[in-house]
Design brief:
Mean pLDDT: 95
Structural class: alpha/beta
Keywords: Oxidoreductase, Pyruvate, Thiamine pyrophosphate
GO biological process, one term: pyruvate decarboxylation to acetyl-CoA
Shape: elongated
Number of helices: 23
Distance between the termini: 100 Å
CATH superfamily of the largest domain: Thiamin diphosphate (ThDP)-binding fold, Pyr/PP domains
CATH architecture of the largest domain: 3-Layer(aba) Sandwich
Bound molecules: thiamine diphosphate
Protein name: Pyruvate dehydrogenase E1 component
Helix content: 25-40%
Cofactor: thiamine diphosphate
Pfam families: E1_dh (PF00676), Transket_pyr (PF02779), Transketolase_C (PF02780)
Strand order of the largest sheet: 2-3-1-4-5-9-8
Low-confidence stretches: 1-5
Largest sheet: 7 strands, mixed
Oligomer: single chain
CATH class of the largest domain: Alpha Beta
Length: 668
Amino acid sequence: MNSISSIYLKNNKILTEKIIKKCMLIRLVEERLLQAFSEGELYGTIHTCIGQELIGVMACQFINQTDTIFSNHRCHGHFLSFTNDVEGLISEIYGKKTGVCSGIGGSQHLYKNNFYSNGIQGGFMPVAAGLAYSFKENNKIAIIFIGDGTLGEGILYETYNIIALLKLPLLIILENNLYAQSTHQKETLSGDILKRAQAFNIYADKSDIWNWNSLYKKMEFMINYVRHYRSPAFLEVSCYRLKAHSKGDDDRDENEINFYKKKDPVKIIMDQIFHKLQKKSIISLIKERIENAIYKAKKDVYANYKIYQYKNYNIFNNYQNLYVHCKKNKRISTLLNNTLHNLMKENSNIILLGEDIKDPYGGAFKITKGLSSKFPDRVINTPISEAAIVGFSCGMSLSGLLPIVEIMFGDFITLAFDQILNHASKLKYMYNYNVSTPIIIRTPMGGGRGYGPTHSQTLEKHFLGIPGIRIFAINNLFNPEILYKSILKNNQELSIIIENKILYTKNLLSFPLKGYFYKFKDYPQPTIMMLPKSNLIDITLITYGGLVDIIVEIIEELFEEHDLIAQLICPIQIYPCQLSEFSNLIKKSSLIVLIEEGQGFANFSSEMLSQLIENDKFKNCNFLRCSSEPSPIPASIYLEDKMLPNKTNILRNILEIYNEKKNVNSKI
Ligand SMILES: Cc1ncc(C[n+]2csc(CCOP(=O)(O)OP(=O)(O)O)c2C)c(N)n1
């Protein structure tokens, strides 16, 4: 048992009372929520921090409202320590409109002012780092709370590396309660926790909740260290949660739980600094506040359900006259490089991130050449850490910076999938549109260069249909600068720009085929069409990205050799993408061909096809889909060519349909 003299933090009674009352508030809120769950009044889940409250409360003694906190699934204590918003929290967990995120986030996904939490273990590490990057020029810091089970996540170490290299003011507080759900740390953790951080040159120390005076001092020291030295630090705090992982069963040894219950610092301090009546009065005041909050939450209405709204960019309306088709014979790679130069000159908030993007190398495909020489502080050569780079850019975007990330080969974007799906696309939604995450990820996809199974894939179909993301694919019918300009002008969300790598070496096709004209449409998504001047149309070809100029050749050959007139519809935004606006145009043809380079099962074309089939206008049409064979991509350029859609096999497939038709007609 602790002696009375050590009860007071810094021998300061008022401070100790303040801290312990906050701990009691957190505890009583969570106990009441557990009760509401057990009574069937709440749904979903909660993770209580009962027993661990001191950590968040103490940390918040040393930070300002301009600092930022990132938390996790076990976030109520951190949230209340920082915001004191009992009412907003309770209403949120009751799923109501007055909740801090109007019931969309719920228990694990809280946002208020500079407080963020989410439910992906470790996922917030690079996001916190990216936000801390924006604090380089001021006195602010960021703190992230993680659990010991999260030490198993690779993203943690990608982020350790980056925060140490860039010297970012981020304090990582590890609440080591020995368990991840029901699994004890001894089954999952090898080596030394502090040494993991120290190996990256991060200043690291440890403390525990049972020596609260020392914890208080360490917390003060670590926060001052990060603030003063503008460098990361790591604090491990040993603790124990006194309740189950979530609202369910507790499988831990009862003797162990009882052992820690006896050591519970919140109870010990409460018992020792307040006499019985004082305690009763403090508890009843807190309980009254909680009951009022619950009463209000129950009476409150539910928010309206919001579908993610995409703003129209008016790419062509705004820029067509300027530079849809700049000078002739411009290579797409040169145009992209010019684009980045122009954008960075115009907007000092743009930061480029990527692997090997600095001079003299200038990126694997040289798209970023010259930029680091011109803007040395705004081009970051990152470690090979795709997940962390994307998460980092998400944190940057929360601060108002405009990150443009290069993923060297599109094949590697899969490593960042969690950051794209659960962070960059979702934060604005789960925080009820109180934040935005304008980020551009640009990446080369596709084959045709013999790079083999892991450097040639067309993977964008895996990202289609994620609400809150836009997917674009450039082609060589327009200058990509207008797309980049439009995105940055309207920037609200994550945009993934697919730059098919075969395009880099191609020139802009400034002029349509003879007898054709280009038509540009912004609604419902930016789309380029190459339409015949004649009104007679046999075939509609729908494609996007790097295949476009092959399709133009096919159109030419269909006309010259086979007397068939075809038209091209080429969306630049491939998600979201709607064909309904084009139905009058498409229905002029009897054959509709959907072509893309990626694998055929559940891809862009399948979605477009189902949109068409759902529409009565097309019931008499024939449909054809051309995509790659269902196999990984071989390295041999000969085999690769056989399995990917190309001019020969697309033409063959189209003509087979016409020959079949002819045969049927001649039999009749
Ligand atoms: C990436 C990810 N994997 C698994 C889970 C499921 N999960 C939720 S909490 C938890 C345990 C986390 O343990 P720890 O990091 O020690 O935090 P604690 O619960 O002890 O506070 C797990 C596995 C998750 N939310 N996110």
